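Lab notebook, page 48
Experiment: co-folding of the full assembly
Goal: obtain a model of how the components sit together before planning crosslinking
Operator: M.T.
Materials (sequences as entered):
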Amino acid sequence: AQKITQTQPGMFVQEKEAVTLDCTYDTSDPSYGLFWYKQPSSGEMIFLIYQGSYDQQNATEGRYSLNFQKARKSANLVISASQLGDSAMYFCAMRPPNAGNMLTFGGGTRLMVKP
Amino acid sequence: DTEVTQTPKHLVMGMTNKKSLKCEQHMGHRAMYWYKQKAKKPPELMFVYSYEKLSINESVPSRFSPECPNSSLLNLHLHALQPEDSALYLCASSQEAGVGYTFGSGTRLTVV
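Observation: model returned without errors.
Model output:
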């Protein structure tokens, strides 16, 4: 069975600073996909970044980057230059192969950006 | 069109009511999903439709009845719900393989 762990229930970061949100996963499948989503209080799940298990380079999307360490089974999200609008819940998720394309989510991290 | 549209955004229903949640996408995605999310918890998968056929039912009580009338629409019919069913219900769609996995903004359901 696949498992996703986010060990930080809540975090504070000062505006304009960088922050790292931790995510570890457990799977025996060699092929999988890792996602990060942002969920503001409005409820919408906003896709941020994707990393495939066979991707050679760490994924980047604007201010978001994924620190993918395959041997350690970690996929930490790095947000650079935090903005007040980054305050939200952040979920790490994994899509294993041959699982109906479903996502398994970690417990989430609530990020609060201080002005 | 790169959106998944869910209606209504908010719904309050009694335990004897019958209501339906609607989800629509026009991205050509052939897989559609229903997730349930309780407050301060991650989304939990309820149902998966692949090519308009139900492929996964995560042991969801029969008071929740999904329907996929065509490749763009997904409904969730609700009947005789309990107060503990109050939650955010999220619809999503995806390609069969690849990265494209898009969520709607959800329906906040309150059962009274």
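Interpretation: Chain B has no helices and eleven strands.
Next step: discuss with group before ordering constructs.
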